[in-house]
Amino acid sequence: MTVNHQLPTTKNERVEEVFDLFIKHMQEFFEEAKLNHEEYTNFVNWADRLGRSGELPLYADVFLETHVLQAMYTELPGTQPSLLGPYYVENAPFLEPDENGVVELTQREDEEGELFYFSGTVKNVDGEILKNAEVDFWQNDASAKYSNFDSDAPDFNLRGRFITDDEGRFTVKTFIPVPYSIPDQGPTGEFLGYMDQHPMRPAHLHIMFKSEGHETLITQVFFEGDEWMETDVAQGVRDELITDPVDKGDYKESHLEFVLRKEN
């Protein structure tokens, strides 16, 4: 009996180009590192554990994505993107603003934390106001947990979508997020241990902006004075996205401007 091992019929030149570069630089890495066979075997075994544990996306978030984004966007106008992160959930509920234009993020009646009003203005690189832009907003709670993941909070807690007003503005009523540790009990944590690197991320808000005719912007907002900001394990902090909330007594507030790039 003849077995026919059919090969792919369509060549993808871009895939070939990228993987040729990947192999080339991996080989150069091994040459430069001058690994002995035991070290090489340990490296391969660690990479195998990384894959089997399901932590490859986590590892890529921490050590690769920031550098990819910087290579893509640093020289371009507009707000710099940051990591999507592993805790994004699609189809968060749409929220309507109150009579004062404030959107209250979905939350428990006894939600703990420091009350925070965060406002923003959304424009494009030509300075045009982007009204009716969709804003997708999520964050952790006072226990450093994200809803829909390792949390006892209801689904979509501290998550929500809404649109900007006719002036491209929005205001969210929420709570100051808190720093948290990325998962560090598996191969990614093992790698951090080898590097004597802590697993902490500074407190941040996640925001995704969508507006017709513009590139989707995924970014994060950080807080002045956070002890982990200078050594963020994911290196995701952008200076232009650091906010310094103003203390208003029983709440804090701050404002940032976000600038979207037009689609090519």
From TrEMBL:
Instruction: List, in alphabetical order, the GO biological process terms annotated in this UniProt record.
Output: catechol-containing compound metabolic process
Example GO molecular function: ferric iron binding
Domain Catechol dioxygenase N-terminal, first and last residues per copy: 12-71
The chain positions of domain Intradiol ring-cleavage dioxygenases read 85-254
- Which residue stretches, if any, does this entry annotate as coiled coil? none
**What SUPFAM superfamilies has UniProt attached to this entry?**
Aromatic compound dioxygenase (SSF49482)
Name one matching Pfam family. Answer: Dioxygenase_N
State if Oxidoreductase is listed as a keyword.
yes
Cofactor(s) of this protein: Fe(3+)
Do the record's keywords include Repeat?
no
Assigned keywords, A-Z: Dioxygenase, Iron, Metal-binding, Oxidoreductase
Family to which this protein belongs: Belongs to the intradiol ring-cleavage dioxygenase family.
Name the chain's protein. Answer: Catechol 1,2-dioxygenase
Origin species: Salinicoccus kekensis
Q: Lineage of this protein's species? A: Bacteria, Bacillati, Bacillota, Bacilli, Bacillales
